[in-house]
Predict the structure.
Amino acid sequence: MNFLRVCFLAILCFVLNACSPKPEFKNIDITGSTAFGKDFSLLDPDGKTRTLADFKGKVVVMFFGYTQCPDVCPTTLTEMQQAMALLGPQSDKVQVLFVTVDPERDTAEILKQYVPAFDSRFLGLRPADEAALEKVTKDFKIYYKKVEGKTPTSYTMDHSAGSFTFDTKGRIRLYNRHASGAASLAADVKILLKGQ
């Protein structure tokens, strides 16, 4: 009799799992990937060390860039701002993180002004030193390179343009393509906020 119960429960679990469809994300599903970083240790504008654990219970969208970027960075942050508007009250359960790849110019003071200008809840982060920058960019497979300008301070930074989304349990789930649109990001965040 116990054997039949165990068999019945096993079949029931299989059927229920088969009936639970995989979420259909708009961006690239990297759930379970070991190729990308699972955490970080970066400084916020007040000098406090932040890790993914600080944002537990929220969906985290993390983007790498720099404040003097002429196009990709402000476009991406504007898109994220629009996604927050589309989410309405659910946006309070989302944390957008902007990680600078140009800590030489992106001081804590500049990050404190620039990033929240898009949305007061957005947070700018910076590495403590060059080694920390190399580690976080290597962990997340982020390309960045300084491109010299006409003067020592007029350089630009080539860098990867996508972003990453973590679910409320701190698991990396999505790679968001650059310019995929606010509606796509908002739709994916809604799925993650449902716990899928």
